[in-house]
Each structure stands twice: as C-alpha cells, then as structure tokens.
Specification:
Barwin-like endoglucanases, mainly beta, 8 strands
C-alpha cells in the first residue's frame, strides 16, 4: 500500500498575476520552486486563503527572484491578484517511508514572495 503524503509546501504567498488567456498551470518564481523542493511540471494543489478555493494544476518555472505567483487558464477565475495562497505537492510513499519523511515547508515573505534568508 502507498500513502499520499505531503512532500512540499510554499506557505502564504501572494498572487501577483492571474492570466485567463493561458493554457493552464501556475507560474512560480524559480527560487521558490527550488527552495521547496518542487519540480517544473509537478502537480500541485493551490489553496486560496481569501476565498477557500482549491485547484490542482502543474508548475511552470518563473523568473528567479521575481516573486511571481501567476495562476493561468481557468484557475485565474478562482484567484485574484493579492490573494494569499498555499501551494502543496504530495508524494506516494510506503508506510515505512512516510514514518520518517519530513515535508519541505518554506515561509517566504507574503508581501514580496521572496525567500527570507
């Protein structure tokens, strides 16, 4: 049996753009992707703290240190610029792996979306 366990989380970043006329996905600052241990094209769940919406999509790399968090495509209807979001990725693990796993969680500045160093 495999368990679906939290792998990575970017906690409380602000949406900087919402682009309805894009195919889909979320564009995330490359520095945040790396710090959270995420990968381009990886499936993520995005939770909107302001209105409770949740969507699943995949990651596109944004410009490093830009602070960019852009919801693309249909998801742009559920998120507005300035909304605070949580971005989470999960991994399938055996119960033994899950017992020792520690998720990678980062807490960027929620105004600039840049890493607090």
């Amino acid at each position: 049996m495999l368990l679906n366990i939290l792998k990575s989380k970017i906690h409380r970043v602000s949406v900087t753009e919402a682009n309805l006329n894009y195919i889909g996905s979320i564009t995330i600052d490359e520095a945040l992707i790396e710090a959270a241990g995420l990968s381009e094209n990886e499936k993520v769940t995005i939770v909107n703290i302001n209105n409770g919406e949740r969507v699943d999509t995949y990651i596109i790399k944004g410009e490093r240190d830009s602070g960019k968090i852009c919801l693309n495509g249909a998801a742009a209807r559920k998120f507005a610029v300035g909304d605070l979001v949580i971005i989470m990725a999960y991994a399938l693990m055996t119960p033994e792996e899950a017992a020792v796993h520690k998720p990678k969680v980062i807490f960027p500045d929620s105004i600039t979306n840049r890493l607090i160093r």
